Predict the 3D structure of the following.
Amino acid sequence: MANSEGPVGIATTDEITLEELQLAARNHGMPLEGLRYDVTPIGMHYLLTHFDIPEADEASWIVSIGGRVRRPFVFSVDDVRSRPVVTMPVTMECAGNGRARLHPRPISQPWLSEAIGTAEWTGTPLRPLLEEASLEDDAVELVFTGADHGVQGGIEQDYERSLSIPDAMRDEVLLAYAINGQPLPPQHGFPVRLLVPGWYGMTSVKWLRRITAVSEPFEGFQMDAYRLRQEAGDEGVAITRMLPRALMIPPGFPEFFERKRILDAGPTILEGRAWSGSGTVTRVEVSADGGVSWADAALEPSVGPHAWHRWTFGWTATPGEHELVVRAADDAGDVQPLDQRWNHHGLTNNMAQRVAATVR
């Protein structure tokens, strides 16, 4: 969960490549029935591991703060644990969620719509550590470096992402060391990671090793990989916060291969979750006729300031074939599109979910 999986080309056919299948075997999405939980069980939370999971010894793990600071220092995981403790539920989504539904398809991790999860994270706020380091007046960004190392785009690199000073200083930004009441498992960034609520998951650098204050905007590979572009050479626009999305727990039961849903006629409660990192979800709409007509779902309070809402909708299922559609809107004025706008990297694909259902 987090870290880049930027595309390496554009598919010429709809067939998934062996390389994409290899990525899909390493990573996994959350089964949509997991939407029933306020807090996603650890094993169901989506997971993206970009390079290899690094070997980590908590007892010897050190994180450094340096660069454009007056008082550089290092700290251990025990030092982090000794600081004020914050625990909060946070919804995290991969920026590439939905990529596999684009035509033509950017070749990379072939997410459908399940690259999502809401965990209860425990850690300590980042800001007090930055204040202790005393940033120089010319510092404009902080670069966060993970221990995961590999090659992408022909460049050997550690995984690195940056945040502006104001974004990094927000109260909710944590150095996290536990998830759902347990120490971070290796695949989720053990022993300590960055957590940036509201932003797409690539921002929350795992296996954190260094925090470096810099006087110029950081232009590392993983910053360039997450820009919204129509063509490979475009300057693009930086991707930051999650766009609104609603997902439905597919009703009834599935046909094994196609996952088409089968259910009996009569009153049915449709339910799911909705979230946004760019605002607050204000509306969830449901359609039972492929998006021709819409009705409002009941929206419950979120499980936390940075976490998803549960929604429910009463539907009288009639015999026949139906296409169920759900979409969310937020107070920033964003509404999920019915058809996804294509982009070169296959990012921020928040088109409305469609579920085919046979009512018998």
Remarks:
- The helical segments are 18-26, 77-81, 127-133, 165-168, 221-224.
- Residues 18-26 form the longest helix (9 residues).
- The radius of gyration is 21 Å.
